[in-house]
Amino acid sequence: MNFKVLFEKYKNNTASEEERKIVEEEIEKLKVLNEYMDESFDLDYEIDIKTNIDQNNKGELYKIRKSVKRRNRIIILSSVSIVLIIMVVFHSVIAPMLNKLYYNPDQKTYSMTNDLSIILDSHVGLHYPNGSLVTVLANNTGIGKYSITISKNNTFEGKTEYYYGDINKGKLDIESAFWRRGAIVNFFVNATYPPYYMREDEMENVIKRLENAPPYTLIEAYISFEELLSMNELAEIMNVHKNIHWIGIRNSGEYKQVYPLIGISNKGGFIYEELNELYPHFNTALIASKDQITGDILEQNFRSSLQFQINHSATLETLSSNFPTKAYYENTLVYINENGIKTYGVVVQGTPDTILELTQLDGISGIRISNSKFYLPYYN
């Protein structure tokens, strides 16, 4: 948009706030330049008298003065117009082209939302036992620069958490609290090497705490199995006990451990039907809503989630070194192909009585309470 059109919009009071600001800044510049030129060419009558110039010459000087001022105004107006044209071209043409050289968090491959929201939602499902429903809002603040807000539902607290940061030329800088929501390493018995064994008296103490807890207590707990369970074995448990939110999956051999811990989310979330066609049972929301969970559904979900992260790992690795690498997910995929998809434990959320029911199952080797709070029950 050239300055003439911009100025007409200004006169007609149809210019936007940003356009009004541009015009008024240029008008202010013009006033300052005019004052300067007037001072520089102030051929007034005092000079005429002092130099004994006759009346006819005074008239000629007055004409010259007017001519010079007119010429200067034309020069200034032309300069301002050129500057405005350059600014408009830069913001409307050049800046968008330069922005394309860097990662855009608003880019969309799928119709439902921006890619980064889905990628981070998948990341949270794999690694955060009490996180779901991730969305990313981005605002372009400069070439390759975006201010972002990441929102994430905390399933235990029942509220939305917000994390604020920036993406500058493809690099993510976000609040450190965002990274501190992963599965707690030493709360499972066999999730790590060496194991964090739980003594029998420790188990009894936790069970007593659950037995004595008020009924209106919501508890999050890590429950460990003595032996690794297959997804078919776990599905049988899940179809009876509905409060399992996250399933820890073994991703390395018995005598080593690869971090971070990784698992299957059963917390619900957004439904990405378009993605389910490309990645079978990708949606954790569909898993959580099934009346009957099967081992095949759980396995397909985990494989799809791994493959999705592998296919989008370049984005995560570019954004931050805090995200797991492509090699991490590829090695996990190799491991489960060779050894099967098996779990060492689950994260549950529920009232004390529902968690006590799980502790009565055969083959429980540990239970550690990670969080608790009082809540108001709902009445129909």
From TrEMBL:
Pfam families: Sigma_reg_C (PF13791). Residues 210-364 form the Sigma factor regulator C-terminal domain. The chain crosses the membrane at residues 74-98. It comes from the Bacteria. InterPro entries: Sigma_reg_C_dom. Keywords: Membrane, Transmembrane, Transmembrane helix. This is Sigma factor regulator. It comes from Natranaerovirga pectinivora.
